[in-house]
Amino acid sequence: MITGATGFVGGALAQALLADGDTVVAATRGSDTAADLQAMGARVRPASLADPNELARVADGCELIYHCVGVERQAITQSALPWLHVAAIENVLSAAAHAGVRRVVLLSCGDVTLSRKDRINWREQQPLAAPPYDAWCRTKLMGEEVALHRSSSAGVEVAAIRPGWLWGAGDRTQLPALCREACAGGIRLFGSGDNLFSSAHVDNVVHALRLAANAADAPGGAFHVTDGEYQTSSEFFGALAAALGTRARRGWFPLSYIRAHVRAVLRSEPPWPADVLRRARGSLLDCQRAITDLGYTPKISVQQGMAELATWVTQQGGVGVLARTPPRAADPRLAEEFEAVAANAQEA
To answer: What is the pLDDT at residue 323?
Structure first.
């Protein structure tokens, strides 16, 4: 079973599993892209993350659950963050225990440790000098901690994958905003571009998720996953810009950071402060734990991924077409949905 199967990583995971002959059940709220999953051979089942009983019914008979639901900061309200990042995970774990699922693999994020400081040779269990940067990061970390703490406590094993900057062909989440930057004069670095940068191609993340589903040492652990290449942000975004037919341009960090705060307050087009920090601050995530415990090695290089991305962008009609993809709007019903289910449960 996959939650978030209509998303970037969840969709790529579903496609890879189906190609290998696995039975895939997609728990979805009924997105328009669910038809594509059905055409690929997935069993699409309606279920709300707010209702553990619905999730348990969908999970019945499944051996594994991949929890891949995720949204960008700009696509969710502050009130909905704890529900999506914490309560939803609790519901998935409860459903897994009820349905007799063997293991849950959680798609987490390297941003659970994002701060204003550089993160160089950063290990999964390294203590944080300060709380994660914003409410998105903090609730994401809280949900991961809840999941790993419950690993095996109810007969369900849990592992978490923390990818670096997600990218690759098929990305309709971050890439359209980058295409809009490209059309406006180039992709921004928000600094000198000399900071180290950890990227994670979608194929490498899918590979790690599948390894975590069966590795004996995975339960109870969080694992950094990157492309495994020593690169600066200037090198990565320079290659990305070239794949999009544009250039990367440097900026002054303090001014970019202030402007990002204004955009966040107005809830306008990104980049927001966290987006600026992700590009401007050093991040070299240590993947040794994934290499040792999961047997992880990257399946695709940055160079190969960029070539595939350039081809895919051309097939979609070019940068201008992707740039017109509208940003996802916040769903005001999400928090209400969780609150309604919680209220009904208390009454019962």
So the answer is: 93
